[in-house]
Amino acid sequence: MTAQDAEELYVEEALALVNNRPGPAFSATAQAPASVSGTPHAAEAPGHRTTPWPEARALAERAARSAGRRAPVTVALGDALGAVLAEPLTALTDLPSFDTSAMDGWAVAGPGPWTVRDGGVLAGHAEPDRLGDGEAAPIATGARIPPDTTAILRSEHGRTDAGGRLHATREVNHGQDIRSRGQECRDGDQLLPLGTRITPVVLGLAAAAGYDTVSVLPRPRAEVLILGDELLTEGLPHDGLIRDALGPMLPSWLRALGAEVTAVRRLGDDADALHEALRTSSADLVVTTGGTAAGPVDHVHPTLDRIGAELLVDGVKVRPGHPMLLARIGESRHLVGLPGNPLAAVSGLFTLAEPLLRILAGRAAPEPYALPVREAVHGHPYDTRLVPVVVRADRAVPLRYNGPAMLRGIAAASALAVVPPGGARPGENVELLQLPWSTAGIQVCFT
Ligand SMILES: Nc1nc2c(c(=O)[nH]1)N[C@H]1C(S)=C(S)[C@@H](COP(=O)(O)OP(=O)(O)OC[C@H]3O[C@@H](n4cnc5c(N)ncnc54)[C@H](O)[C@@H]3O)O[C@H]1N2
Ligand code: MOO
């Protein structure tokens, strides 16, 4: 271990300990460990060869762009949620497609009182008979308007007299409560531009506008390889073995980022199995967990070397997660190596997987979002920190239990705060990376 490694490990440990001292939930202590000052450091630690955090994200975007534009695919509406429109959504019909009643009541012709015709008009029925002047017909919301109707009288605004004639209890304006054909759009109008993310509402609009299928950008296919002999898939930890926390977490997270997850495989610490998996995978993105550091069974680097991969990012100036990596492993195919520590893996998801998948999936970048921190947040001397926070009264409140191996903080968080080297003072604005499912977020989609 070099002196620099020792210092970095010390800083990590110190930060985790400081944040884990007993205290009220959702509070961060303002007390810094002895070696970590709150003063921003512009300088880098000597010998640092890793990529600055913003640059790592830009490199991941660039890697995805280099993969080229993928041919659109046609999918049934039921399979389109979360995908991105490859063509503008153009109305295939007028909406409404016929003049229709906006209310339950009577279709009336001319001024009242009216003679009420026998037999009402219901939604989905054939075109009703023309109304004569002074005539009314009971009508349901969504039913076709009889020709020569001048207004709809709501059921609560009409009464019939002893002679069966209908009187209005309110003034009746010409055309009232008639939704006329084409009010929302005309056949051929552009409803949504190319590149729109398909939300549940977009599915509804597409169906209303006559679509059975839509043309979308194909979802990038992602395969997850979980490395580590120490991992259990069930039961309690025992004898130095621990539960795999990433296998249950990553597939749905990757889907939320726009990927189709084709496989989740557990390979242990077997270098040949990893080699074979990388050699034979056809996924656009392979995500590995663990094995990124330089330990005796950390096989990711040697295996990338063995398959002739090009390392685009080899370590990032971010805590946690600094050993994360990005490599090109084939024509338009990439690998993101997430560190094994679970919060470090989350950091890798935000730093490398999110930008890469966002560009591959054709999604728009999230709007930059910043809030003041409620209290001081310690910084790393040289690296960016990603710290789980909750938003309370327009302040980002740092959470405890934010050590690299911990998920307890982020499980309660709505965002990760991007804390610059040197830290953030109380009230200082910090960028927030929203969790895809956070209530304040706009990107909730797990399919
Ligand atoms: N000499 C050094 N050692 C380490 C450094 C370093 O700079 N020099 N960095 C440390 C940091 S920071 C991290 S992060 C880890 C990254 O290690 P790896 O990516 O090689 O991950 P592993 O060694 O396989 O595992 C680390 C840790 O995480 C646990 N783990 C792994 N997979 C899972 C999983 N699916 N679910 C839950 N926990 C998992 C594993 O048991 C280890 O405890 O390296 C440090 N070392
Ligand atoms: O700090 Mo490591 O980067 O534990 O994630």
TrEMBL record:
Taxonomy, superkingdom: Bacteria
Enzyme Commission designation: 2.10.1.1
Biased composition (Polar residues): 28-38
GO cellular component, one term: cytosol
Keywords for this protein: Magnesium, Metal-binding, Molybdenum, Molybdenum cofactor biosynthesis, Transferase
Any GO MF annotation of the entry: molybdopterin molybdotransferase activity
InterPro entries: MoaB/Mog-like_dom_sf, MoaB/Mog_dom, MoeA-like, MoeA_C_domain_IV, MoeA_C_domain_IV_sf, MoeA_linker/N, MoeA_linker/N_sf
The reaction(s) this protein catalyses: adenylyl-molybdopterin + molybdate = Mo-molybdopterin + AMP + H(+)
One BP annotation, GO: Mo-molybdopterin cofactor biosynthetic process
Enzyme class: transferase
Pathway: Cofactor biosynthesis; molybdopterin biosynthesis
MoaB/Mog domain ranges (all copies): 223-359
Cofactors, names only: Mg(2+)
Spans annotated as Disordered: 26-51
Primary role: Catalyzes the insertion of molybdate into adenylated molybdopterin with the concomitant release of AMP.
PANTHER family: GEPHYRIN (PTHR10192:SF5), MOLYBDOPTERIN BIOSYNTHESIS PROTEIN (PTHR10192)
Recorded family membership: Belongs to the MoeA family.
Protein name, UniProt field: Molybdopterin molybdenumtransferase
